[in-house]
Amino acid sequence: MSSSQQKVEFFDENGLRTDGRRPDEIRPMKIKIGVLSRADGSCYLEWGANKILAAVYGPREAHPRRTQLPDRAVVRYRYNMQSFSVEERARPGPSRRSSEISKVSREAFEPVIFTEAYPKAAIDIYVEVLQADAGTRTAAINAASLALVDAGIPMRSIISACAVGKVDGQLVLDLNKPEDNYGDADLPIAMTEDGGITLMQMDGDLSPEEFTKALDMVTEGCRQVLAIQKQALAEKFGSFGKPEYATLRAEKISQDEPEDDIDDDAAADDEIREDVAGDIEIREDMSADVEIREDMSADDEIRDGMAGDDEIREDAAGDDEIREDMAADDADGVIDDDVEFTVISEGSGSDDEDGYDFDADSEVA
Ligand code: ADP
After folding, report:
1. Which residues pair with 164 in a beta bridge?
2. What is the C-alpha separation between 181 and 134, in angstroms, rounded?
3. Beta bridge pairs of residue 159
4. Binning pLDDT at 50, 70 and 90, where does residue 8 land?
5. Which ligand 1 atom is the nearest neighbour of the CA of 140?
């Protein structure tokens, strides 16, 4: 958020925003749950031009062992922005910004996950920003929330996130890029289904009256996001609240296993574990606490080391062909304006008219 010395027209003569939305309207959202076969749960989500991939692994035995908690599972969240996700290539690897977002996002989920059901275990949430266009932390939280459900992690509530901000003295919901860059305030919020706030950050200034109004607006935004999330879950698991989904939750909650069982489960399939965990060394780096991560990221030399060399990372992120596949629908990064939201249905493969080739999941993973 940089204060607006720069003259930007935020509203047209009809009071509509630069992308044609009303002040209280969120961007179109598309969701597909269960896109990665090797993750326990996954979700691909587009919100406006943001494109996010979330993967959840666990509950599984926490490594290294010193990170284990005797009475509950440790939740780990890694937000990562791919270097190709922004106009100017972003520096790969952890940064102070990604560490901060990872920390606050983890804290947004900790209150709702039944961590006490899985002592000594870890629940790992990875989000990759494939394309960024303001609001990536909230988009990532929405995707992660559904990936957690897909993984069968018992939760007290789904988490829904949205930002509200101020431009030209007017409150607007779900900031777009110019509003984020040149507006006067940005207030990202994550909340439970009954409105309990689990993440609140604020950049810029709001008066107490504006703040109260902003909270009302963003609560309504989160409610709209929740409706879209529920529809995506219904597409995947059957009608929300009907037996399929209820059973899924109940089964997981009743898995109040003794710790040995958890160890057995976690260790059960070495092959899968090795596939998904990738390099233990990298995992250990990532799971280190934020303070350590920030220390480490302070030192460019070490940071470069952690990030691995660019060539490898870019290979891992998929070749241009895959990236172009994923972005194929909208060269200009804009999802069909006339679509309020679309839940991508099961089996929408490469012949999907939007051009999403979800069968390529292993390459993306
Ligand atoms: P959020 O994405 O949650 O809104 P920020 O307010 O920090 O988080 O970032 C706003 C937007 O700025 C991002 O969505 C992205 O489009 C852009 N951005 C963030 N970091 C970088 C970066 N390192 N290089 C280029 N653009 C960036």
Report:
1. 173, 187
2. 8
3. none
4. confident
5. 3
For 184-228, what is each residue's pLDDT tens digit? Answer: 999 999 999 999 999 999 999 999 999 999 999 999 999 999 999
| Residue whose structure tokens are 């939305």 | 21
Q: Ligand 1 centroid to 295 CA: how many Å?
A: 22
Mean per-residue pLDDT over the chain, rounded: 76
Instruction: For ligand 1, pick from 81, 129, 189, 303 the residue to mutate: most ligand atoms within 8 Å of CB.
Output: 81
Give the single-character DSSP code of 224. H
Q: Does any ligand 1 atom lie closer than 6 A to the CB of residue 133?
A: yes
Query: Rounded CA gap, 53 and 131, in Å?
Result: 10
Residue nearest (by alpha carbon) to ligand 1 atom 27: 86
Secondary structure of residue 246 in the 3-state scheme: helix
What domains lie within the chain, and their CATH numbers?
Answer: 29-159+242-364 (3.30.230.70)
Taking the complete model, does pTM exceed 0.90, yes or no? Answer: no
pLDDT digits (tens, 9 = 90+) for 320-333: 443 344 333 343 33
Label residue 310 by pLDDT band (50, 70, 90): very low
Ligand 1 pocket test, pick from 1, 51, 79, 86 with the greatest ligand atom count within 8 Å of Cβ, gives: 86
Contact criterion met (CB below 8 Å) for 188 and 170: no
